[in-house]
Amino acid sequence: xxxxxxxxxxxxxxxxxxxxxxxxxxxxxxxxxxxxxxxxxxxxxxxxxxxxxxxxxxxxxxxxxxxxxxxxxxxxxxxxxxxxxxxxxxxxxxxxxxxxxxxxxxxxxxxxxxxxx
Length: 117
Description:
This protein is an all-beta fold. The protein has no helices and 11 strands. The termini are far apart.
């Protein structure tokens, strides 16, 4: 089972950028679909973006499409989320998740992103 640790969160003004990093342990990182989710106060966790392990196909929530970019470096066991043109509604705790089958195998501890207007 892979272990995950997010970093890179912080506080920015609207229109700013942040890059989140999710570092994974384990030798089979490339086999996992990697995703970013987020959870705002009082709301359920929601999907943000996903990248496959082999051909690195990406998929985004409509709310972040065109602003966020997910990528991965299998040589470093790392997945990234580049977030541009941030909006106050992007404020949340961001989590990365690893999935090899139908369910997510592992989650990180989360990193806080705060966007002020």
